[in-house]
Amino acid sequence: MAATGRPIQLFRNLNAKIAAIPMMLTAVVIFFGCSVWTIVYSFTNSKLLPRAKFVGLDQYERLWSANRWLISIENLFIYGILSLIFSLLIGFVLAALLDQKIRFEDTFRTILLYPFALSFVVTGLVWQWLLNPEYGVQAVVRSMGWESFTFDPLYTADIAIYGVLIAGLWQGTGLVMCLMLAGLRGIDEDIWKAARVDGIPMWKTYLFIVIPMMRPVFITTIVIIASGIVRVYDLVVAQTSGGPGIATEVPAKYVYDYMFQGQNLGQGFAASTMMLLSVSIVIIPWAYLEFGGKRRG
Q1: What does the pLDDT look like over 197-219, one tens digit per residue?
Q2: Domain boundaries, the chain
Q3: Which family does the record assign (predicted)?
Q4: What is the pLDDT of residues 206-264, one digit of tens each?
Q5: Which of 38, 80, 109, 273 has the most CB atoms less than 10 A away?
Q6: How many CB atoms lie within 10 A of CB 221?
Q7: Model confidence pLDDT, tens digit, residues 279-293
């Protein structure tokens, strides 16, 4: 009976399985296949065109001895940690405020979400203008009489990455706010009533009751933010082009420059492989703990 049941299970929803074949082939060939191809050719001396002349770990030794790559990793770490923290913090606070059933909620939500509708290129150009000391925020404040005011992060190498961070937060916080607001609206109203009856302060209700209940929302939001952090490129190019000097260099720009401008595919492949490895180190253990633990339970 079991033997006859297996073919029935195999052919169940056959049309749906056939329709999924192109997507599965695309995922295997394009994503997995290209990733393997990139890793293999990162061990070669490919320049303008790929060539199978293997040089071992030479590309990786050159990569980690390059000051430009080390600075890009440092910038990504600073941008990523601060972007993750402030996006979650600001987004959750804004969502909590909007969740109080305030007047003109739809208007405020639209205004706060609007920057997300803009491309990173537009965002970078807008904030390049706003942070320009000659006609941006600094010029406006000085025209009001505060002559000693200085605010030009994009033109100071030590803090230029924070100018990029401001633009990134301005664009992405609105989406985080909407995700958090959706999570807050999913909390049962009886929980709020019970907390008020028990005399629990509002901040404790959020910290010890609401936030733990919103764990899936936070996980989804963190994954979305992290994916944007790793591939940040166009915002930096539009806003600073990696400058001043290489003060705002990021790994994605390093890969692009070496692969398409420096005509050094081997070095670009090595850099992109390290980006893939860094993502895998974070994602694989998290996925194992998140899904493997539930399956065992």
Answers
A1: 888 888 899 999 999 999 889 98
A2: 67-296
A3: Belongs to the binding-protein-dependent transport system permease family.
A4: 999 999 999 889 988 988 888 889 889 999 999 999 989 999 999 999 999 998 888 89
A5: 273
A6: 22
A7: 887 777 777 766 665
Q: Is the pLDDT of residue 6 over 60?
A: no
Dist CA 198 CA 226 (whole Å): 38
Contact 108, 98 (CB under 8 A): yes
* Class level of CATH domain 67-296: mainly alpha
Beta bridge partners of 54: 44
Contact 177, 91 (CB under 8 A): yes
The tally of CA atoms less than 13 A away on the side-chain side of residue 138 is: 15
Neighbour count for residue 208 (Cβ, 10 Å) = 11
- Contact 258/267 with Cβ under 8 angstroms? yes
Exposed, middle or buried by CB within 10 Å (0-12, 13-18, 19+), for 161?
Answer: buried
User: What φ, ψ does residue 222 adopt, rounded to 5°?
Assistant: -65, -40
Hey, how many other C-beta atoms are within 10 angstroms of the C-beta on 151?
A: 15
Number of alpha carbons in the 13 Å side-chain half-sphere of residue 219? 11
- Please report the sign of the dihedral spanned by the C-alpha atoms of residue 57, residue 62, residue 64, residue 69: negative
